[in-house]
Amino acid sequence: MLLTQHTIHTINSDLISKPTESSFLYPEKILQFGTGVLLRGLPDYFVHKANQKKLFCGRILVVKSTSSAGADAFEQQDNLYTLSIKGIEDGEEISHYEINNSISRVLAANQDWSEILKSAENPDLEIVFSNTTEVGIVMSEDTINDAPPTSFPGKLLAILYRRFVYFNADKNKGLTVVPTELITDNGTKLKSIVTALAKLNELSEKFMDWLDTANDFCNTLVDRIVPGALPLAEYTKTCALLGYEDQLMIMAEPFRLWAIEANSERVQQRLSFALADPNVMLVPSIEKYKEIKLRLLNGTHSLSCALALLAGFETVKEAMQNTAFNQFIRLLMQDEIGPAILSDSISVADINDFSSKVIDRFANPHLEHKWESIALNYSSKMAMRNIPLLRKWYRTHNKAPQLFALGFAAYLYLLKSKLNGDQYEQLINGRTVVLQDESAPRLHVAWSNPDKLVHTVLSDTDLWGINLTEFPHFEETVNQKLQQIIEKGALKALEISSVLDNKKYK
Length: 506
What we know:
Helix 5 (152-166) packs across helix 6 and helix 10 runs antiparallel to helix 12 (323-341). This protein has helices at residues 37-41, 43-52, 73-76, 113-118, 152-166, 186-200, 205-214, 232-242, 265-270, 287-310, 316-320, 323-341, 348-362, 371-374, 378-396, 402-414, 440-446, 453-458, 461-464, 474-488, 490-497; strands at residues 16-17, 28-33, 59-64, 81-89, 92-100, 103-108, 127-130, 176-179, 216-217, 220-223, 250-252, 257-261, 280-283, 418-420, 423-428, 431-434. It has two domains: 8-284, NAD(P)-binding Rossmann-like Domain (Rossmann fold), CATH 3.40.50.720; 287-496, N-(1-d-carboxylethyl)-l-norvaline Dehydrogenase, domain 2 (Orthogonal Bundle). The protein is α/β, with parallel strands linked by helices. Helix content is 44%, strand content 15%. It is globular, with a radius of gyration of 25 Å. The strands form four sheets. Strands 6-3-2-7-8-9 form a six-stranded parallel sheet. A four-stranded mixed sheet has the order 1-5-4-11. Strands 10-12-13 form a three-stranded mixed sheet, with helices on one face.
């Protein structure tokens, strides 16, 4: 049995949350560009949740970039899909299924453009969501009279212009645009491109004013791992468990975060779906959340990745099952990263709360997050995520951060490579791996003189933008940790670090 609006009434499993009858009748309030799993697993999840609580009462018209041959899964299933939420939350393993009916229609831009443009005349429409990947928010010399314009900003401008004309420049009929693309200042960048396109299309000054004052472009930060479709064996098992088939079923971790810059009462009123979940934050600035995520999640990944690989762990969840590694992660966040990012805007409570969620996320048994993929472009990640963290640490401390130094030493050892043709290779867990790191040649040369390796790399301002040997005791500490890894192995170094007296860092 396939999941549809007709068959949903026959589904009686206690394992599933089903949508209310009334939520199928809500008007389209959101125009969404993209059908991807992140959109369905995060923004659409929040909208659905709010609809079930009658806090938003609006559905989503989705625009996909291309049409499919024949009826696609959305059409076959009346746009219904199952979200399988699996992982660890507050230290407890959870498994939950919900049928999401937030999407009302799915239209193809190249086939249904006139109907998509017609949606701009809908008085209930208030919001635009998008996830067109990082290359979606780019300037392309689009003509808005094309059917459709080539780029996402071009399509958005065409929608806005149709709305401007239809509602006779009514400033109450602008839209709140909420992009989720993973680029810095996504809302600001999108607005600048749309504005430039409007000028390129020689649109009126009256429209330019309406575009600027009647519409809101929000910068956002999204954070949720949504692997997407279940592996075939797990999908088959889940269908048997739930009693129906669902071609659109996706999995997501329990953790979710959506920080949205909402600098006006108008935006806050329109984004009322935020009331359904405290993990949607409507805030004046998202910088705090970006900093917390970058340092505690991404930074922890970078400082533990090499250690995990050298210790023989393939996945993050496997490493977290090791007591010493688990403790290393906890102490790293609690005693070094946390104190370094503490500020007027980031409190101890903020740090502790996010750190506990990082532990849950890393330990999720349903995610196959491989350390090798985390190690891609390792040097640039270390420079962006962790070197600013080191500078913050030394503003309030005069001693080297021991766990940071261990993670950095492991990074150095991981990039001890052999040159094979034009490739730099490392033996990891008995397998030869080609290093995907733009600084691999630089580190390869540095390793030709092991006695001076640490000093050479730490003093390389081209790598780090700063001479790291100037930080008190950092060079000698990294040297000590590197020798520890070379002589005793990464796993033993982790075991030693897990019992360190963290009081000496205070």
